[in-house]
Specification:
Blueprint: H1 14-21, H2 24-38, H3 58-61, H4 71-80, H5 86-99, H6 103-108, H7 111-118, H8 125-143, H9 155-158, H10 166-177, H11 186-195, H12 205-218, H13 225-238, H14 257-262, H15 269-285, E1 289-296, E2 320-327, H16 329-334, E3 360-364, E4 366-368, E5 373-375, E6 377-378, E7 389-390, E8 392-396, H17 398-409, H18 413-427
Antiparallel strand pairs: 1-2, 3-8, 4-5, 6-7
Helix pairs in contact: 2-13, 4-5, 4-10, 10-13, 11-13
């Protein structure tokens, strides 16, 4: 590859130098050939039953419907697969495609019906985006007087649809229309981070931007974009896993810098595996140790790289480095995994997550005994779990919660009953007052 092709990608560093050594055509062939032989059987890929994973919806719907694999069905599968395991999605996907086989039918459906079918899959905003997206497509197609409602093939137009971002647009364009557009999801971030030894958080904005640029270079002049992109996703989902990497059976290990580091200094991978087992055993025994490991590995020297995190315990020498691994009591308490410095598992780092916000609630399960039904409350139209039905939840302060907790622990049922009645009267105002009969069990 000509270095001029990547001059605008980034300052030249160890990651970009390694990219320059990769032949995109050979890389693509390795991914595509492996994918065709080893891919999982899934309904959104046009496969017939049985699938790689069990389908539990057969008894409910009777038979698997004939699903037309087009841009719409791929769109549905990509939205469902966001933050959700494949094995969970299969049943929901089949039921969805039977109920809403086309964009037009989905657009005409009531929101309650859409949400009912989605119930249990979580992240309910996704279902609303699908529904809104279908309505949007009907609207723009009517304006253009198009009889057949279809998703556009360009990234720019796809991203105008509610709920479709860069990744989903790339997936639809490449899988449905065979467009040479890269896709970068969580699996591919991990895969590429190991290929190019990027040591950064997987939700790093700089890392993601860099990997999108790398993805555009690696997919260039590919004729089988559908298979190539799905092959990368499949590798990240089945081979290059977060806590376990099957490097020996990986079809692109010849291009992987992390794998080369893992196998450096010797051709016997078992030695490195034994080293990893040694560390895990020490953690299990909860012994504090210090040990120096010297390996001739290629690592980021942080020159011209503002993406990788800096390890304070590494020498200044960028090639032959000494890494001191200190398993302290503090680390043991947190149950953190300590890995040899040349393990592929050190790429990438865990996401930087925000600390969860604490909220204190009293939940009321109110039953009308006469009509044998429960009283439910509908959540607001926006925000978390918007428009979902739930039992009545009353927010309380931390101080109120502490009082509640103390009364319950002391089994002061009478005081607790009065206390909850006080909170209810303060938060619920209705024409008809309820008579509450409390039963508390510790």
């Amino acid at each position: 590859m000509d270095m001029k092709q990547i001059k605008n990608l980034s300052k030249i560093n160890i990651h970009i130098k390694h990219l320059n050594t990769i032949n995109p055509t050979l890389f693509q062939k390795s991914v595509i050939n492996w994918y065709k032989k080893n891919r999982r059987r899934l309904p959104w890929r046009g496969d017939t039953f049985p699938y790689t994973y069990p389908c539990n919806t057969l008894q409910e719907i009777g038979e698997i419907p004939d699903i037309k694999i087009d841009a719409y069905s791929i769109w549905v599968s990509e939205i469902m697969l966001q933050q959700t395991r494949v094995i969970t999605v299969i049943d929901y996907y089949i039921k969805w495609m039977k109920k809403f086989p086309t964009i037009f039918i989905l657009a005409q459906a009531k929101e309650e019906d859409v949400m009912k079918l989605w119930a249990g899959l979580g992240y309910y905003r996704r279902a609303r985006y699908l529904h809104q997206g279908a309505k949007y497509l009907i609207q723009i197609n009517n304006e253009k007087n198009n009889v057949n409602v279809m998703l556009p093939s360009s990234i720019k137009e796809l991203k105008k649809i509610p709920g479709i971002g860069e990744y989903t647009a790339g997936a639809i364009a490449s899988i449905a229309y065979n467009k040479p557009t890269p896709v970068i999801d969580g699996n591919i971030i991990r895969l590429f981070s190991r290929l190019f030894i990027y040591k950064a958080s997987s939700n790093s904005t700089q890392l993601n931007k860099q990997l999108w640029s790398i993805g555009k270079i690696l997919i260039k002049n590919c004729n089988e974009n559908k298979e190539y992109n799905q092959g990368l996703i499949e590798l990240g989902a089945t081979i290059c896993l977060p806590k376990k990497a099957d490097c020996i059976n990986c079809p692109i290990n010849q291009f992987c810098l992390a794998y080369k580091n893992f196998n450096s200094n010797n051709n016997n991978i078992e030695k490195d595996i034994n080293l990893l087992n040694f560390f895990e055993k020490k953690i299990h025994q909860k012994k504090s140790i210090k040990k120096k490991i010297i390996k001739s590995v290629k690592v980021c020297d942080h020159k011209n790289c503002d993406i990788c995190v800096i390890d304070d315990d590494l020498d200044d020498d960028p090639i032959n480095r000494k890494k001191t691994v200190n398993i302290s009591k503090k680390i043991l308490k947190k149950n953190q995994q300590v890995l040899p410095p040349n393990s592929v598992l050190i790429y990438t780092l865990k996401k930087n997550k925000k600390k969860p916000k604490k909220e204190y609630l009293i939940s009321l399960i109110l039953k009308n005994i006469k009509n044998d039904c429960y009283i439910l409350n509908k959540r607001p139209n926006t925000g978390l779990l918007a428009k979902q039905w739930e039992f009545i939840n009353i927010k309380i302060t931390e101080e109120e919660y502490l009082i509640f907790d103390i009364e319950k622990k002391n089994d002061q049922t009478l005081n607790l009953k009065k206390y909850i009645e006080k909170i209810i009267s303060k938060n619920i105002t209705t024409t008809n007052r309820f008579n509450f009969n409390f039963n508390f069990k510790n």
